């Protein structure tokens, strides 16, 4: 097991800066996820940890050991690739044994280690099968077994589930987590899928355009996004530009030009003094936090609109409420049966609860 410490990492490919000034400390035994849209620098960062790329600037350390320019085979990391990178015409045994043969381990020991790891990934009965004759999920398990068999200090997973269908993806999420907990291995997982990141990780780093915007536990990232990019990328949110008006006891008042209304926010954590008029500010309120009712609602932040769309997903019902020509607010409620569904065109009241609004700055380049 090992910690991974990245300090002031920058990676340039010619004119393209793939990663800019990245600092990260990944703890021993942690399941840590790099999350972000395509091209944001997740894979480049993972490859610098694996040693396939060297950083242009900055340091990579495992525990206290400087690994910045150490060759990949000398790092003791196990990597699982998006396309598995297996040898299709070799058997499961041969694929998993490959890394051990390179390390010149005795035949008896190889047999034992491969047998053990295949039991762990529940593939022992397929040991002699050619990889090309396995399903996608089984191939993914072979790739995992091959990474784990060398007993790596760090497990690196690059979008390992993106080629699987939705049901199998969910199954493999649980499987990967089970193995990670059993081995207690420091794991870095790359994905652009927020549900995967939220359900699997101890902590998540959210990337955009070569920069890491926030590091935190899934609940911190979801409940307290640091800016508009993180709020939009993780889950769904209603985001409206606002400007600061005044403080009132434990409340702050903002103004939203899009709705031409004042918005009361309870105990905003935003340090207003550090923002100028040029800085963009937004109020973010999650759809599940918005109250919706055909009856009158008491308190601040109550607005009227009309239902423009109802989407049924099985467990939840999303009701979109048109406030004016520019603004539609999304609300989400658990499915409480057909009598609670609203018809399009119904006049409703919605409320943004004061303690569920987060005022956040716009992303800075
Ligand atoms: N070998 C390379 N040569 C030149 N540019 C590269 C190279 N590898 C990555 N880049 C560029 O660096 C940026 C970050 O790429 P990276 O693959 O790290 O992103 P990513 O977040 O992993 O995206 P994806 O999810 O699509 O794999 C992109 O603009 C990409 O085009």
Structural notes for this entry:
It is built from eight helices and 20 strands. By secondary structure, it is α+β, with helices and mostly antiparallel strands. The protein has two domains: 4-227, P-loop containing nucleotide triphosphate hydrolases (Rossmann fold), CATH 3.40.50.300; 236-361, RNA polymerase II/Efflux pump adaptor protein, barrel-sandwich hybrid domain (OB fold (Dihydrolipoamide Acetyltransferase, E2P), Beta Barrel), CATH 2.40.50. The strands form four sheets. It has a six-stranded mixed beta sheet, sandwiched between helices. Strand 7 (154-158), helix 5 (166-183) and strand 8 form a beta-alpha-beta unit. The longest helix has 18 residues, at 166-183. The radius of gyration is 25 Å and the shape is globular. Adenosine-5'-triphosphate (ATP) is lined by residues 13, 16, 18, 36, 38-44, 192.
CATH homologous superfamily designation of the largest domain: P-loop containing nucleotide triphosphate hydrolases
Uncertain segments of ≥5 residues (pLDDT<50)? none
In order across it, which strands form the biggest sheet? 6-7-8-3-9-10
The amount of beta strand, in percent, is 25-35%
For the terminal residues, how far apart are their CA atoms? 35 Å
- The CATH architecture of the largest domain would be 3-Layer(aba) Sandwich
The CATH topology of the largest domain is Rossmann fold
Mean pLDDT: 92
Structural classification: alpha+beta
Helix fraction by DSSP (H/I, runs of at least 4): 10-25%
């Amino acid at each position: 097991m090992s910690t991974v410490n990245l300090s002031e990492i920058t990676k340039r490919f010619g004119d393209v800066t793939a990663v800019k000034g990245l600092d990260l400390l990944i703890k021993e035994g942690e399941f840590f996820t790099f999350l972000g849209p395509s091209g944001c620098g997740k894979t480049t960062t993972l490859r610098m940890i694996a040693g396939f790329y060297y950083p242009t600037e900055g340091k990579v350390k495992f525990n206290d050991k400087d690994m910045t320019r150490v060759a990949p085979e000398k790092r003791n990391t196990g990597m699982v690739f998006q396309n598995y990178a297996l040898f299709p015409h070799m058997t499961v045994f041969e694929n998993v044994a490959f890394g051990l043969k390179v390390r010149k381990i005795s035949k008896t020991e190889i047999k034992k280690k491969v047998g053990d790891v295949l039991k762990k990934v529940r593939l022992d009965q397929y040991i002699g099968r050619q990889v090309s004759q396995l399903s996608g999920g089984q191939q993914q398990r072979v790739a995992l077994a091959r990474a784990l068999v060398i007993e790596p200090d760090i497990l690196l997973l690059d979008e390992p589930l993106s080629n699987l269908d939705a049901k199998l993806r969910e199954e493999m999420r649980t499987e990967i987590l089970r193995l990670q907990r059993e081995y207690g291995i420091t794991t870095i997982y790359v994905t652009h899928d927020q549900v995967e990141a939220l359900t699997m990780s101890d902590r998540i780093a959210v990337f955009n355009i070569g920069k890491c915007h926030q590091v935190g536990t899934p609940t911190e990232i979801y409940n307290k996004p640091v800016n508009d990019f993180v709020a939009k990328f993780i889950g769904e949110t209603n985001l409206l530009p606002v400007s600061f008006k005044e403080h009132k006891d434990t409340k702050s008042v903002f103004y939203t030009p899009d709705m031409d209304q004042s918005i009361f926010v309870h105990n905003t954590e935003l340090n207003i003094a550090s923002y100028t008029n040029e800085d963009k500010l937004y109020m973010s309120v999650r759809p599940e936090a918005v109250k919706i009712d055909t009856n009158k609602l008491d308190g601040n932040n109550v607005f009227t609109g009309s239902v423009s769309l109802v989407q049924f997903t099985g467990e939840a019902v999303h009701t979109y409420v048109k406030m004016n020509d520019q603004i539609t607010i999304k609300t989400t409620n658990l499915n409480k049966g057909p009598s609670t569904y609203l018809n399009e065109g119904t006049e409703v009241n919605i409320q943004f609860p004061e303690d569920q609004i987060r005022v956040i700055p716009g992303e800075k380049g």
